[in-house]
Amino acid sequence: MKIDSPPQILHSRNLHRVGYDFSVLVQAHPPLSHYVRPNAYGDASIDFANPQAVKALNQALLKHYYGVAVWDIPKNYLCPPIPGRADYVHYLADLLAESVPHLNPEQVRLLDIGTGANLVYPLIASHAYGWQCVGVDIDAKALRNAQQIVEGNGLQQQISLRQQDKAESIFKGVILPGEQFTLTLCNPPFHASAAEAQAGTQRKWRGLGKKPPQALNFGGQSNELFCAGGEAAFLSTMISESRQFGRQCVWFTTLVSKASNLPQVYRELKKVQAVTVKTVDMAQGQKQSRFVAWTFQAELSKNRI
């Protein structure tokens, strides 16, 4: 049986480098079988424009590879692609191995900004590396769903959740006085408005060869998709706030969806006097992504980062 594999170049430790083996995934999560059909090449696949099919695929992937037996998301919430999310986590592990090589993985504390209803980053990080994870979100409904995932899988000792009460803040109010984190990660909202998000959704549907729906998106709430000023404004706030917590976190990191925002990011990081800045490129076929990491701790430079 051939494996349906969208062209992608993933991290060497990414469990999804060989693509989707649907025979194995259906065994892990039998409901996935309702959506598996031959694609144009005669290989087993699913309709990636069908939100129920994508959710079933995620449930199978999380169950088979990460031991997550209970996982669901409310209707119209973001259903992220698991392989790309895993790549971010693995490259973060590389960053730690290079900069703090003697750190025990069980001592790592990860702060996920905008964890969402899906909780995917903490699920992968806790399983793959044994990290302690704190997920933060502004959406109470998303956090209630994430808490159900935590409890349904008995992960209360590894994953905890916090609500950000102030829309204008990112780290303020969620990093407590004296608290220490090893890493932060974030997948920021990258649209500046609902109209821009709608246009992006329509392009995505056309890319899948489907007629765009009238609804905004079958995968994302407003706070997941857009914010005032878009990605650039969000990143500016994050960088500005990070300086205040520079001794409480080893590495701050964030995805930067738009390469055109990188010059501004570097200017902002210079302004707040980040000691070391590192950009990590990631690739999945035609899709190029990257995250930027920065630290205020000068002692890390001794490790030649």
Automatic annotation (TrEMBL):
Q: Which SUPFAM superfamilies match?
A: S-adenosyl-L-methionine-dependent methyltransferases (SSF53335)
List the catalysed reactions. Answer: adenosine(1618) in 23S rRNA + S-adenosyl-L-methionine = N(6)-methyladenosine(1618) in 23S rRNA + S-adenosyl-L-homocysteine + H(+)
CDD domains, per the entry:
AdoMet_MTases (cd02440)
Top-level lineage group: Bacteria
Record bears the keyword Methyltransferase: yes
- Read off the Pfam families from this record: Methyltransf_10 (PF05971)
Keyword rRNA processing on entry: yes
Subcellular location per UniProt equals: Cytoplasm
- Annotated keywords: Cytoplasm, Methyltransferase, rRNA processing, S-adenosyl-L-methionine, Transferase
Q: Which GO terms describe its molecular function?
A: 23S rRNA (adenine(1618)-N(6))-methyltransferase activity
Which EC number(s) does the record attach to this protein?
2.1.1.181
Transmembrane regions listed in the UniProt entry: none
Concerning its family, UniProt says: Belongs to the methyltransferase superfamily. METTL16/RlmF family.
- Role summary: Specifically methylates the adenine in position 1618 of 23S rRNA.
Q: What is this protein called?
A: Ribosomal RNA large subunit methyltransferase F
Supply the gene name. rlmF
